[in-house]
Amino acid sequence: MSALRIGVCGNGTVGGGTIELLRNQAALLSARSGRELVLTRIGARRDRDDCPALDVPVHRDLLEVAHAEDVDVLVESIGGTSLAKELVETALRSGKSVVTANKALVAEHGNELLALAEECNQSLLCEAAVAGGVPILKALRDGMAANSVSELSGIINGTGNFILTEMGAHQRSFDDVLTEAQALGYAEADPTFDVEGIDAAHKLSILAAMAFATPLNFPAVFCEGISAVTPADIQFADELGYRIKHLGIAKQHADGVELRVHPTLLPKDALLASVDGVLNAVRLQGDAAGETVYSGAGAGRFPTASAVVADLVDLARADTKPLHCLGVPVAKLEPQPILPMDAVSCAWYLRLEAEDRPGVMSQLASCLGAEGISIEALIQKPPKGAASTVPVVVLTNAAREDALRRAVSAIAALPGIDQPHCIRIESPN
Ligand code: HSE
Fold first, then answer.
1. Are both 372 and 254 inside the same structural domain?
2. What is the residue range of 271's domain?
């Protein structure tokens, strides 16, 4: 079979890693694919020291790679959603398949781009877009093909996990750890995408589309970041037997789908609770396989390039047969209602400062009781020095989000109690 000819656009962390992997693993890739994988073009808007110089043409105009006669597959690793979208559309329309690591592009424009790929009889694959080196999309699409997946949850942003882990383990400040994550190449160009949960929401929308065979629906994902989590929260959670993780959660219900990203207290013995640092992990609940967990490096040069190159190997093996990224043609995806957060039920962690005087606790308990919310555990620390307030932490039983919000408003309106800081609790079965 003739060689698969590859044009890589973008020579940063992911593109540079892909170029290096194609060069360093050439013999292995050829043995595994039954044909050679050959880099024929590079599209790079500027040179970078960390990208190997190879004897292939380098184009400053990336669209030239999308039109090049000697490219069968274009790798899009430039990021962003404007030029990247134009590049992907141009490549597909020029009869090339596309491999992308760009979760924002897939989450925001995937329905349209996948339809275009089918129309052009090409493939659009994106394993690297979710959980870096962890082959979670292949696991969902292929390995779990015999299962109806009822829920999935995952640590799908390495930067956020790195920050929470370091804050908890070494009492380091949020800003200090974020700076290190950026230097290590984990963080997005705009790190608010990591810390405010947008990156995780992009990835969750891709996972949910594949798990539930439904169109991508990024705008419907409820999204809360980690910037309000404090070292005190991590410490209190630890005392109560929990770890705080930033989770993406998708659940299939009879009347629709739950899609949410937020900081979450997890019991210490939950499988995801001990996944630390930049590691990602995704837990699937399938009706035949039961619970399965997939874990590994969720960001970084070679883990992400590993996923890009695995897609290239799939395309090399498939030859000219188009592959469906979500497992089925887009016309077969069934739109589903997304459940409003008000209807979502979970247990809660509340942390607040309260005046140290008789009656405060009973008022707090009354506000929760009035909404039918029961207290599961409570910690009150003695006042520090001459402080007139004390920190209080309450764990509740499961409550609907709308009931909890009403109770929290009532608590915040009490004299001597400030606005509680609330974090959801998830207790996997
Ligand atoms: N910024 C992302 C993360 C990179 O930290 O997980 C991988 O998508």
1. no
2. 136-296
